[in-house]
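Q: Given only this backbone (373 positions), what sequence would you predict?
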């Protein structure tokens, strides 16, 4: 086992290697001018933690036996190290069907940032994280071929002829899950409560985790509260009524379901400011507009989640490329001048099974396009 005391590197060298390791995961965690990227890392990871994590694969789950062999430890010792890292929010874990505990290294987001929401979120690290976001990380979010969150229509009725794909029918998908957690929105907590940016009055307890992710939040992180299917259904309905878009993981599993708006959501702000090649995959739907039915009342622009609609000189709405296909403007249109329709499937990527698979695809895409060496 390599310990920090025997690795022959300084703390700064270990943390820099760890930052470079994290930058390869999903859409990355880049270095920026001023070294702000070290703030979050140093807040939660000791140099020894970082060494352990860099020995973990980014693209697969592993168990304590694998880790013990990798580090030259007894299995009991490996289990204790991994358990400690997991309950501190520094790696993810879940229990397999056979009862074995499996572990996975986590990206900067959705991962380290969100797993340290609640009581762990403070001024010690959030300002530095915002420095990373503004310094380049947000620009990387939608430049990896696929997003890690995708938007699903707020209701089946908003899609022409109700033609909503099964994976996008979030209210039906809820019925397939066995456990739910409702937790604080990390974006709202960090921007409003920590940084004092009061951009909106939206409820902060709007994020939902399902199944194994809910187990991790509730049992390990002690973050959020357990909720019933009915409570989650009503929460999402209220969020839609409040004008929020429903986003979920770019995966069939729906491990996380968020209710978002560009006023406070870092992911949607990234889509607005730095649209990249992943934007087409943010939704399988686009808006079809029938100008002849338009009442020219501007209701669609007022309700738009992304601020993507402007009114032209003739009084008609014009939708820009930041539309995410949530359907809020369709809700606002009383004459059905606006409807969601399917995008051309030829230009869309298929959903992987798990969000962890999506992170692997993102890394692969970044390497293929040369933005990640």
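A: Predicted residues:
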């Amino acid at each position: 086992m390599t310990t920090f005391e025997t690795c022959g590197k300084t703390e700064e060298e270990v943390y820099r290697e760890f930052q470079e390791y994290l930058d390869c995961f999903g859409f990355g965690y880049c270095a920026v001018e001023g070294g702000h990227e070290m703030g979050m890392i140093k807040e939660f990871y000791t140099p020894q933690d970082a060494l352990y994590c860099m020995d973990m694969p980014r693209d697969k789950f592993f168990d304590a036996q694998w880790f013990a062999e990798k580090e030259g430890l007894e299995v009991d010792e490996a289990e204790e190290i991994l358990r400690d890292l997991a309950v501190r929010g520094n790696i993810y874990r879940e229990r397999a069907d056979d009862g074995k505990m499996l572990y996975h290294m986590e990206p900067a987001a959705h991962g380290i940032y969100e797993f340290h929401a609640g009581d762990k979120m403070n001024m010690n690290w959030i300002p530095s994280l915002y420095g990373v976001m503004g310094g380049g990380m947000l620009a990387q979010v939608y430049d990896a071929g696929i997003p890690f969150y995708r938007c699903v229509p707020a209701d089946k009725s908003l899609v022409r002829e109700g033609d909503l794909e099964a994976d996008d029918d979030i209210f039906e998908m809820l019925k397939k899950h066995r456990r739910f957690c409702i937790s604080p929105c990390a974006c709202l907590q960090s921007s409003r409560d920590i940084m004092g940016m009061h951009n909106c009055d939206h409820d902060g307890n709007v994020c939902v985790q399902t199944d194994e992710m809910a187990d991790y939040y509730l049992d390990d992180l002690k973050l959020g509260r357990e909720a019933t299917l009915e409570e989650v259904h009503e929460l999402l309905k209220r969020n839609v009524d409040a004008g929020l878009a429903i986003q979920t993981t770019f995966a069939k599993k729906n491990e996380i379901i968020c209710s978002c708006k560009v006023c406070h959501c870092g992911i949607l702000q990234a889509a607005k400011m730095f649209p990249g090649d992943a934007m087409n995959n943010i939704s399988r739907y686009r808006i079809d507009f029938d100008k002849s039915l338009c009442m020219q009342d501007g209701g669609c622009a007022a309700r738009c989640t992304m601020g993507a609609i402007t009114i032209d000189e003739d009084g008609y709405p014009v939708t820009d490329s930041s539309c995410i296909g949530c359907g809020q403007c369709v809700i606002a249109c009383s004459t059905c001048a606006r409807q969601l329709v399917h995008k051309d499937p030829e230009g869309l990527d298929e959903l992987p099974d798990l969000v962890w698979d999506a992170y692997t695809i993102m890394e692969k895409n970044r390497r293929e396009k040369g933005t990640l060496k």
